[in-house]
Amino acid sequence: MDFDFIIIGAGSAGCVLANRLSSDARNSVLVLEAGPEDSGLSLRMPAAVLSNLKSTKHNWAFQGEPEPELNGRKVQHDRGKALGGSSSINGMVFIRGHAVDYEGWRQTGCDGWGYADVLPYFKRMETYGGGGDAFRGDDGPLHVHRAKPQDPLSLAFLKAGEDAGYPMTDDISGYRQEGFGVSDRTVFKGERWSTARAYLNPARKRGNLTVQTHAQVQRVVFDGSRAAGVAYRNRAGKTVVAHARREVILSAGAVGSPHILMLSGIGPAAHLHEMGIELRHHLSGVGQNLNDHPDFVLKFNCLKPVSFWPKTKPLAKVAAGLRWLLTRRGIVASNLFDAVACVRSGPGVEYPDLQIIISPIAVDDATWEPLKRHAFQIHIGLMRAHSRGEILLRSADPSAPPRILVNYLKDNRDRVLMRNGIRLVRELVEQPAFSDLKGDEFFPGAAAQSDAELDALLNTHTTTQWHLSCTARMGTRTDESAVVDAGGRVHGLTGLRVVDASIMPFVTNGNTNAPTIMLAEKLSDDILGRAPLARLEAEVWRNPNHETQQR
């Protein structure tokens, strides 16, 4: 089998590339996806997020290595395994990240990745429910729904932010990210709007696009230093080799892409030798620089019967499900994240490094089952962690999952910032807006006040926001830890690119799905030899008193 382009992975980036590259009828494109079709009804139901994560049918559910700073706990890393990838199972929260993130990318040597460079691609990819403007698009394939908070807890959260002196924002992905505002989600007409639905499905009728599911890639095949194809195991268990006339593009994600690179002999020489894999090209940065957003949850009893708990009872769930099936409306059409805050952890912090989001229901940490009482929880996400981890091979067997070590809280600065976040949330819920709603803090509990007490709880309860990234990062050829250049081309090889969250130099200060889609949109033009979209210079708000004030 011969194709112009072979795309490994039909996830958030791969679906975008499949659409854009096949839009030119002269290109033949093969997409290889290890998982199945995205045909399950639960994948369309926004409220079925936790159900999808509990199942391994559409979820790799990687088990991480024992985390040294988390008492040796193993954290599960959920990654999509279906058409649409993680966009088919994620929480659907849509946040672009701050303009300063992208200026930081540019300053690391990634020319063409400043905010003015990426903004036109963010606009091209979306149709925003709040309407188009200087920052938002109104005719793209990805539908982004703007929440309209109505439940008392989300409204109290927003008002409490105002009471506490934080700025309010009309759009966290627009002019002002910093502050309290409503959340955006990738939902359209009450259904999850994954990249499979936004990008891949409209392109599948094209004769020049071939999509193979249940295709487990074994390695990239080379002709000298040129990537010439891909060896993969098909649904019948037979190994097949597909040839690429122009490029092989890895879009297998921050776990899958470095995994496949190393299986193909590309990566740290000593590690590949240890695994018994013949070295094709030494790149020390493959699998290194692993970024994530650690997450910690505070839980409170609710004094009034306004939480969503009663809606999770068996009869109520059936009624809600029927309503959604008939109308695509109601609680099932929501991810239950309507209000969010992007704030700075303290004075001297240039732009938001904490994401705080409220859920109008509390769940058990181990089972994710709703607690049988009126309660709510508030998540604290550290958006710019200093700790770095790595992804390594477990063996040379392609079917063996890789080793994932994030090193949560290894850098003590992350502990300081997480403790700051806990104290800021506690201050928030003491505002007048919560006075008739907030009961006791039952986790971690008001008795935990000192740094040592909070650290002990961080050790036992810090987990992931599922934003693994940066394991094949962009950088210049002279940067020994960089894996790809600013066009996603793997240094020292030809015909091989990486296009997904693994090439971020460092993670953005928000959920990573939106930036990943943008990456693929932008690099699709580069792959096709098209000039990049014209830069859009847009001023964004930055707190003029950030050096001396926290808000």
Automatic annotation (TrEMBL):
Residue span(s) of domain Glucose-methanol-choline oxidoreductase N-terminal: 80-103, 253-267
GO molecular function, one term: flavin adenine dinucleotide binding
Annotated positions binding FAD: 90-93, 217, 466-467
InterPro entries: FAD/NAD-bd_sf (IPR036188), GMC_OxRdtase (IPR012132), GMC_OxRdtase_N (IPR000172), GMC_OxRtase_C (IPR007867)
Biological processes, Gene Ontology terms: glycine betaine biosynthetic process from choline
Gene3D superfamilies, per database record: FAD/NAD(P)-binding domain, Glucose Oxidase, domain 3
Cofactor section: FAD
Pfam families: GMC_oxred_C, GMC_oxred_N
Keywords: FAD, Flavoprotein
GO cellular component assignments: membrane
Membership in a protein family: Belongs to the GMC oxidoreductase family.
Name of the featured protein: Choline dehydrogenase
Taxonomy of the source species: Bacteria, Pseudomonadati, Pseudomonadota, Alphaproteobacteria, Rhodobacterales
